[in-house]
Amino acid sequence: MGRSLDIPHEWDAVIEMCTACLYCIGQRQATANEFMLDILYGIATDPGQRARNEDATSIFVPRSRREAQARGWMFALADGAGGHSSGEVAASRAVSVIAKGFEEAEEQTSLTSLLPRLIQHANAAVYDEALNPQWRHKGMASTIVSCAIRQDQAVVSHVGDSRCYLIRDGRAELLTRDHIWVEEQLRQGLISAAEAEISDSRHVRTRALGVAKFITAENTTVPVRAKDTLLLCSDGLYGKLGSDRLARLLNGRSEAPSVAAQELVREAVRLDGSDNATALVILIRSVEAMAMYRGRQYVRPAS
Fold first, then answer.
1. What are the tens digits of pLDDT across the range 76-96?
2. How far apart are CA 65 and CA 69, in angstroms?
3. Domains of the chain and any CATH numbers
4. Distance of CA 55 to the CA centre of its chain
């Protein structure tokens, strides 16, 4: 799990408790510095009709403005698979490895290279865990989606079919591509979108952590701005909601992302509930816009 934010005494504190008291964050007053990256987040999860919850999350919260500039924020979500609780172990192991690796990485490391490297470390950890006699032949595996935000850029890296959405101006844009068999068939024109919806292979993943020694993560980089919302979620959440409903539920949220996360999970479970459902909602309150001048980086004034 990432570190808690150590709030300097000159900041006003706004404490938001995430679902099930899993996380508690401190948030400085937004007017303290209008150019600083300012984030609120909330998490909600529900096992649905399943006996176990195999979803897991981890977060890295910078302890100071300097650390926010040098490292940034990091959010990760994993959806485990396997019998006899091996999925829980895989997902938990994956997100903890990524959070610890992000905290220990050299400052100012490129996020586009760091996240795939951390995902490879997580893959190796799950793969090694699966060799344990306790979990052997249990099908231990996990998805992973990780989002790191620094200044005014978000980098998303993922393996499997857990997703990241960007909600902006009332629309939800999918930033990830599902690594599932029907998606590959759809891209190659072998099946139609309607056939993909009912295919028996729609839950067969083509990439997952722990299946092989090496894995290739897929990266996306997007600029972010104030009032943007990012959503990390498992397939148990987005499977029945769809992007339009996600956008409606998250559009215009200026506070309380934990409440939004709870509403998303509650709605997903109401509509289906056959799988674990997890939502990690990230609200961008302000960004530290950067620009280059004569080879040096500087804060770009607000326009």
1. 999 999 866 789 999 999 999
2. 6
3. 14-299 (3.60.40.10)
4. 12
